[in-house]
Description:
Blueprint: H1 21-30, H2 32-51, H3 57-89, H4 92-109, H5 112-135, H6 138-141, H7 146-161, H8 165-174, H9 178-211, H10 216-242, H11 260-265
Helix pairs in contact: 1-9, 2-3, 2-4, 2-5, 3-7, 3-8, 4-9, 5-7, 5-8, 5-9, 5-10
Amino acid sequence: MKVRFPKWDFSKVRAHWAPSIEFSQRYNAASTVPAHIEPYLVKVMMQAKKVLDPKHTKLHEDLDIFIKQEVQHCKQHLAFNRALYAQGYEGMKAIEDPYREDYDRFLKEKSLRFNLAYAEGFEAMGSASALVFFEDLDDLLEGADQDAVDLWKWHLAEEFEHREVAFQVYQAICGRGFFSWLYRVYGLFYAVKHIRTHTARLEEFLMNQDRKSMSPEEVQRSIERQKVIAKKVAKASLPRMLGALSPFYDPAKKVPPAGMELYWQQY
């Protein structure tokens, strides 16, 4: 693990950065997640460091890198999202506001156990999403703008790289017994529902904006394409997520996909 500082200029990135408008907007909606969840994760892990036993020397070191990586993810996606706002999608902000406020509320009102379980749930989603993006979406990425592809592959490669950290922190602080496993699974379901509800709202807004200039026939075809993409991503994601439900789940056992190491090396 290491902290990387990629340099991209998103001022000319297209909102429709992939040949499929529907695919582009699905991931544009997802790009708002790191803009708000990463600051939350940083604060949760800083709280965790205060109570994590000093004997976990390596985990403390990994946490420091984890935190710095998440800061970079936030910065890069904020820059990318600003480019989207400038292309007629300013209305994204109104949908992002309550999502960001949820994390402020979690920090104020929820226990550290809850926040660690939620964080690990998100990290399990992240490593699964990395496998999907690297292994299952080549046909949708063919012909896409390279900066947008590189943003996502760099980010998801790092999510995969630090896939063990939140899991190890959760176990070190919350335990490894039956209740701890059950609560971790609860955190996973909570995170999936919370995040997917937000991205679905944003995706709907983005697609509605695009469809204003379409004919009724074009809108119908767009809706059908959107359904096909959603089904494809869900089919690829589900088996990779199911493993996280097991009491024997260990993210360290996940194998990096082909092409991921390149993104660890080049930045």
